[in-house]
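Why should sequence recovery work at all? Because a backbone constrains its sequence more than one might expect. Tight turns favour small or flexible residues, buried strands favour hydrophobic ones, and helices have their own preferences. The token representation captures these environments compactly. In the example below, the structure is given first.
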């Protein structure tokens, strides 16, 4: 019988945690839609005077509306995603569940901890994450939805001897270690 390793750390995203700038983005999207409506009104009134210019204004307004819609859908998608991160002595497994109800999608990504060359840490407040680099994958672990437990992930990786490159501090990428591991 094969005994499965129990997770050393199992973290779930906190649904109450949201990106810092999301409220500001929603305000900007609403203001953008208001201006888009105003420009469509201008295009309607301008049609009697110059049809070509009216079509250009309306087209630009609709293109802007599609951009705003994409931004809004991204914010909604971020809000409905849940992350489960399991770190064991041998592997890192990230389970992402997106959507709600019947439209729920699941994805799983895994890397072996011994295969990680280095971890690229992005400490920015709104999008804190770490990217694990291996020869076969680059796995991004979003830390911002984990709240206060994000530091636990960094401590675990550091404890396992994974070189961590802080991009904000301009830390050099450990190329010598990468070459040694590739040669093995």
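From this structural description, the recovered sequence reads:
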């Amino acid at each position: 019988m094969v005994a499965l390793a129990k997770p050393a750390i199992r973290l779930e995203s906190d649904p109450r945690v949201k990106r810092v700038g999301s409220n500001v983005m929603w305000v900007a999207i609403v203001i953008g839609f208001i201006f888009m409506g105003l420009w469509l009104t201008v295009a309607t009134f301008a049609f009697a005077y110059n049809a070509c210019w009216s079509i250009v204004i309306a087209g630009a307004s609709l293109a802007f509306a599609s951009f705003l819609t994409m931004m809004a859908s991204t914010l909604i998608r971020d809000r409905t995603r849940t992350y489960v991160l399991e770190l064991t002595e041998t592997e890192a497994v990230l389970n992402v569940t997106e959507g709600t109800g019947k439209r729920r999608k699941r994805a799983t990504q895994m890397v072996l901890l011994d295969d990680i060359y280095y971890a690229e840490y992005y400490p920015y407040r709104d999008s804190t994450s770490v990217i694990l680099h291996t020869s076969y994958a680059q796995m991004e672990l979003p830390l911002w939805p984990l709240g206060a437990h994000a530091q636990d992930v960094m401590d675990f990786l550091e404890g396992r001897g994974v070189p961590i490159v802080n991009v904000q501090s301009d830390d050099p990428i450990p190329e010598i270690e990468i070459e040694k591991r590739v040669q093995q």
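A few observations help interpret the result. Helices lie at 22-46, 51-80, 150-159, 175-183.
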